[in-house]
Structure formats: structure tokens, C-alpha cells
Amino acid sequence: MSTPTLQQLYATHQGKVSDKWAIYLSAYERLFSPYRDKPVRLLEIGIQNGGSLEIWSQYFEDAQKLVGCDINPQCSVLTYQDSRIGVVVGDANLPENKERILALSPQYDIIIDDGSHESHDIVKSFGYYFGNVVDGGLFVAEDLHCSYWQPYEGGLFHPHSSIAFFKRLADITNPEHWGVPKARRDIVQTFASRYGAQFDEELLTHIHSVEFLNSVCVVRKEAPPANVLGPRVIAGQQELVVPGQHSHHGTTCMRLDQRANPWAAREVSVEEELPVRLHLMAELQQTLALRDQQIAQLTAQLAERDDG
Question: Contact 93/124 with Cβ under 8 angstroms?
Fold first, then answer.
């Protein structure tokens, strides 16, 4: 009998309710299937009715620990016969609740953020828990379509939305090529300052890849040596089009100094600078309007004096 896919488990599930979009199930089947025969430790932030934990217990038959955390106090009614499942009720981004989560398992192979979907919570959760993902593990942020909506601190061009944050993490996979003297944490500092998040420089070196699909971002974690470009590899003997390629074997990528490049040598991105510029322009317009009003008043006073 073949092992059921995640889609099949959802199609036949009869227990506690779980709510996932269809594209998540196909993506998770691809992403999570390599972990199915391992003693997986999984944390899901935001479990609502708790059905996903039941399904994860069936999908990961060899799981070591499956932990759910939800801020809704009504989740305290959720109980499970499977001793591998644990539930923490409270805000995952509070120290006391993180301590409770890590008491159940200090490290995780997979962390899924399905919490409030608000940008500040998503950014803080990544900074708070990515360090507890093992190398070779995954951090998954769900329902990022909310990052395009104002009530969730987002918008298509919002410079500090959760999707903008993960786009910035994509740059962190390429620091060798920036050509400017910046640390990884420098380019996420505005998110840290805005949302009170913490980002450790050494930890950011463990970001191996950032994958986007509809409403989801998957950040894969690996040890730093696996995250560099490495030497150039030339194979084969026949150079029928471009000769001289063998001389490049074993060489490293050139590093171009970009300190004179105005699109690289910036303190913040254009998107982040724009609101500041717009605010300054608004202040300038108010100043100019006040000046025009004062000029009009003085002109009227001069006219009255001349008439007198």
C-alpha cells in the first residue's frame, strides 16, 4: 500500500478542522516529503482548530515532536491522544512562550508561521525562531497575500511589508557580489528598528535559499560553507565555440567594487527612502503654503496703508 500524499490526507481527514490553500498542499508535498522518514520536529505558529497537527502526525509517521502555538486562549481546549503533539497557548513572540515552545523541543526541522499574518509578527517570528531551525531545515511563512493589504501592515509597494522583508532576505544569499562594505544585518536593519526584531549576523549566514510561491515564502537553512558560490567548475574537452575555458577552472567569481554605484552605495533602499522624501515634501509644501499666506497678509496690509 503506497504512502498517502498530503493532498490525500486532507481529502480523507475526519478529525479537527485544518484550513490550508490548495497550492500549499502540493508545495508542501514537494518540500516536506524528504523529511517523512526522519524524526521530524515541527512547530506551527497559529493552529486555529488544531486539525493540521493531526494531519502532520499522520504525514510524519516517524516525527519526534509536533508543536502548535496559538494566541487564542480557546485553543486550551485542544487535546490529542498522540503524545508527540504539544500545544502552547499564547503569543509566540513573547519570551515566556518561546521558552515553553523550546522546552518541548529546543530545535526544529520545520517551522510554519501561520499566525496573525501581520507584517510585524511575521518579521519578529523569523528573527525570533530562525535560530532554532536546524541546518537543513525550513522556515515557512504562510498567507503572505495579506502583506498586500493595509490592515495587515502591507500594500503592493509597502517598503516594510512581510513580503518586502523576505525579498530582502533574497539579497542576503548574495553578499559576495554586493560590492559595498555592508553586513547582512545592515540591509534588514530598518525592519529590525520598525518592528523590534533581532537579527544576528552569524545566523544570517545560514540562509541558503529563499523560495516564493503564491502566498508562501520558504527559507532554507544550511551551514555557511554550503551558501557561497564556490569555485568555477569546467568540464569537457571540446571547445568548439568559445576557447580557453579550461583556464577558468577552480577560479572564483570576480568582486567588483560598487561603492561608486548610486544604486548600491545607499543607506536604505529607494522604497524605504520614498516615504521619508514624501514626508519632507509635505512639510515643505506646508511651509510654502504658510509663507504664501504670510505674503498675502503683508501685501494686504501694505495695500491698506497705501490707501490710507
Answer: yes
- Asked if 119 and 161 touch (Cβ cutoff 8 Å), the reply is yes
Half-sphere exposure of 66 (CA within 13 A, CB side): 23
Whether 145 and 117 have beta carbons less than 8 Å apart is answered as no
Sequence-distant (6+) residues with CB within 8 A of 217 are: 140, 141, 144, 163, 166, 210, 211
Q: Residues 147-151: contacts with CB within 8 Å, 24+ apart?
A: 147/117, 147/119, 147/122
Count CB neighbours of 33 within 10 A: 13
pTM, rounded to two decimals: 0.90
Nearest 5°: phi and psi at 275? -60, -35
> DSSP string covering 129-141, please?
HGGGEEEEEEEEE
CA distance 161 to 190: 11
Catalytic sites, residue numbers: 117
170: helix, strand or coil: helix
CA distance 106 to 306: 84
Question: Is-contact 42 66, C-beta < 8 A?
Answer: yes
- Segment 55-113, tens digit of pLDDT: 999 999 999 999 999 999 999 999 999 999 999 999 999 999 999 999 999 999 999 99
